[in-house]
Design goal:
Blueprint (H helix, E strand, L loop, with lengths): L5 E3 L2 E2 L2 E4 L1 H6 L11 E4 L1 H9 L6 H19 L8 E2 L11 E4 L17 H15 L5 E4 L3 H9 L3 E3 L17 E3 L4 H5 L4 E5 L2 E7 L11 E4 L5 E7 L4 E6 L18 H11 L5 E6 L5 H15 L5 E6 L15 H5 L4 H10 L15 H14 L1 E5 L11 E6 L6 H8 L7 E6 L15 H9 L5 E6 L6 H9 L1
Parallel strand pairs: 3-4, 3-7, 4-6, 7-8, 9-12, 15-19, 15-20, 16-17, 16-18, 18-19
Antiparallel strand pairs: 1-2, 5-6, 10-11, 11-14, 12-13, 13-14
Helix pairs in contact: 2-4, 7-8, 8-10, 12-13
Length: about 475
C-alpha cells in the first residue's frame, strides 16, 4: 500500500474509505476525490454484488459502479496492491489512487459490536488503516448517519458525501429577483441610455451592480417611482433592463387570473414569454405556483394556439402509507395524484363574481361542463415511468412536485423537450417526500442553480401565500 503519498512537502494526502451507499448513490464518486486516495473494502464489493439485481435506481447504480471498478482494475491489474492511478480512467478528473482490500483484516472492534454486520466490518477496516497509517488522515465516507456516529464514537474521522449537494445552504439558492438599493440610479445613472420598443422601455446602465446581474433576473424598487424590470443583458460592465408587462392589471388577465403580488407578476412574465423555454417556480404551499402555470398554459394552448396540448407529470411519492395498486389506464392510475390539478381547474372554470367570465364564454352549468370537457381534452396526465425515449413537440410540459426528483431524473425529463416545447418545474424544497433526497441534493435545486443566467430560462421564488389566512398561519406556526 502506498502509505507516503503527499501533495505538498510535509502534508500527506487523505485516504477515504468508501461505504457502499456512497457508490450506489453516485457511481462517479470514485472520481470525485481529486488528489486524494480512495479505499474500497471487500465488504463494500460484497454489498454492491448483493444490490445489483432489479430495475431500481439503486440497482442500476450498483451495476454501473461494478462496471467502472472493472474498467479501472483491468487497466492495471499488476498495481492493485500498491494502488491504481485514477488519472487515466477518470480522464484527468482525479489524480489519486484506488486501493482495494487485498488482505484479511482482523477485527479490532469492541465486543459489543457484532462483526456479522456489514457496516461494522467496514468500520473495522477504517480502524485498521487508521492504526497502520498514523501519519495519514483516514476518513470514512458514508451517507448512513448512524454509521458516522458509531465511527466517531470509536475515534475515527467520518464524513457525509457532499459532492451531490448543489449548495451547502439552500438559503444561498438563487431567488430570481433582486431589490435595487435606494441610491441605484445615482450610482448607475451616469451615461444612462433609454429607448422604447414594442411598448416596452429599455435601459442600458453602467455601475458596480452590473457584473452580478444575471440574464432574466428580475430587479425591482419601491418608492415614488417604482420599477419592475428584468435583465436582458448582464454579467458585464453594462447591463440592459426591460420593463415588464403588468399582469396585476385586469386588462392583462391570464385566463381570468391576475397577479396578486410582485413575485406572481414576475412568474407570469416568465410563463407567458414566448422566448423562455424553461421556467422554475419555487414557493411554499399556497403561493399560486400551479394556478399561475395552468392559467398561462390554457391561455397559450386554447387561445393563442402556441402549444398543441398540456402535459402534466409528477413523482408518485405517497406522504403516508401507499394505497396499493390502482386500476385502469396510465391516465386513470395517475388521477388520484392529480387532485391539485382538479382544484385549480375548478378555480379557473368558475364565473367571476362581477359577472365576467373567468374561463371563456359560457352560460350556466351546461356551459361550464362543456368548457371543462374542452379543457380536459387538451390536458394529458403522464407517468414519469414511461418518459424515456419520448420527444414532446409543441407541448406545454408541467413537472409538478419537482423537489422529489433526483438530478438524474430531472435531466431525463427536461431532455424530452423537442422544438416548440416549454417546460415548467414547480416545487417546494421544504416538502421533500423522497427518502435520501435533501434540500441541497434535490433535482429542483440542481436545475435552478445550473440554469441561472441562460437567456431562455427563468426562475422565481414566490414568497407570499395567497391561499387563505388559515393556510398562511399554518405555514408559519406549524
Amino acid at each position: 500500500m502506498n502509505a507516503k503519498r503527499t501533495t505538498k512537502p510535509g502534508k500527506p494526502t487523505k485516504l477515504f474509505v468508501l461505504d457502499t451507499n456512497v457508490l450506489m448513490h453516485d457511481p462517479l464518486s470514485l472520481f470525485r476525490f481529486e488528489e486524494h486516495d480512495i479505499y474500497v473494502p471487500m465488504m463494500t464489493l460484497e454489498e454492491l454484488d448483493a444490490n445489483k439485481k432489479g430495475m431500481s435506481e439503486v440497482a442500476r447504480n450498483a451495476r454501473q459502479t461494478s462496471r467502472l471498478l472493472d474498467e479501472i482494475v483491468s487497466s492495471c491489474e499488476a498495481c492493485i496492491a500498491a494502488g491504481i492511478e485514477l488519472a487515466g480512467p477518470s480522464h484527468g478528473l482525479a489524480s489519486g489512487h484506488l486501493l482495494l482490500q487485498t488482505e484479511a483484516i482482523n477485527s479490532v472492534l469492541p465486543i459489543s459490536l457484532p462483526t456479522s454486520r456489514a457496516d461494522n466490518q467496514i468500520i473495522a477496516v477504517a480502524m485498521h488503516l487508521h492504526q497502520q497509517l498514523p501519519q495519514r488522515p483516514v476518513i470514512l465516507v458514508t451517507k448512513d448517519i448512524n454509521m458516522r456516529i458509531k465511527a466517531r464514537a470509536l475515534g475515527l474521522d467520518a464524513q457525509d458525501y457532499f459532492n451531490d449537494k448543489v449548495l451547502e445552504d439552500t438559503d444561498l439558492l438563487y431567488t430570481g429577483s433582486l431589490e435595487l438599493p435606494e441610491d441605484f440610479w445615482d450610482t448607475h445613472g451616469k451615461g444612462l441610455e433609454s429607448w422604447k420598443k414594442d411598448g416596452r422601455t429599455y435601459y442600458r446602465i453602467k455601475g458596480p451592480l452590473c457584473p452580478d446581474l444575471l440574464v432574466n433576473e428580475f430587479v425591482w424598487q419601491d418608492g415614488p417611482q417604482p420599477l419592475q424590470a428584468w435583465v436582458k443583458v448582464g454579467a458585464g460592465k453594462t447591463a440592459e433592463l426591460e420593463t415588464l408587462t403588468d399582469y396585476s392589471h385586469a386588462k392583462h388577465a391570464v385566463w381570468g387570473i391576475t397577479a396578486r403580488n410582485r413575485e406572481q407578476n414576475f412568474a407570469l412574465n416568465l410563463l407567458m414569454h414566448p422566448d423562455i423555454d424553461f421556467v422554475t417556480l419555487l414557493g411554499q404551499a399556497g403561493t399560486g405556483k400551479t394556478l399561475l402555470t395552468l392559467a398561462s398554459a390554457l391561455t397559450q394552448t386554447l387561445e393563442q394556439k402556441r402549444f398543441a396540448e398540456i402535459i402534466i407529470t409528477r413523482v408518485t411519492v405517497p406522504v403516508g402509507e401507499d394505497i396499493g395498486f390502482l386500476p385502469g389506464t396510465e391516465e386513470e392510475k395517475m388521477t388520484p395524484w392529480m387532485g391539485a390539478l382538479e382544484d385549480n381547474l375548478e378555480v379557473l372554470n368558475k364565473p367571476a363574481a362581477d359577472g365576467d367570465k373567468a374561463g371563456g364564454s359560457y352560460s350556466g352549468d351546461w356551459g361550464r361542463a362543456a368548457t371543462m370537457d374542452l379543457i380536459k381534452s387538451r390536458i394529458k396526465i403522464k407517468s414519469l415511468n414511461f418518459m424515456r425515449g419520448r420527444t414532446f413537440l409543441n407541448k406545454f410540459l408541467i413537472i409538478d412536485e419537482a423537489q422529489n426528483l433526483t438530478p438524474k431524473q430531472m435531466k431525463t425529463l427536461i431532455t424530452r423537450a423537442g422544438p416548440g416545447t416549454k417546460v415548467v418545474c414547480l416545487g417546494n424544497i421544504a416538502q421533500i417526500d423522497t427518502p435520501y433526497l435533501t434540500e441541497g441534493s434535490s433535482g429542483l435545486t440542481y436545475v435552478v442553480d445550473r440554469f441561472k443566467g441562460w437567456a431562455h430560462s427563468g426562475h422565481i421564488t414566490l414568497q407570499r401565500g395567497e391561499r387563505s389566512r388559515l393556510a398562511d398561519h399554518a405555514a408559519e406556526v406549524l
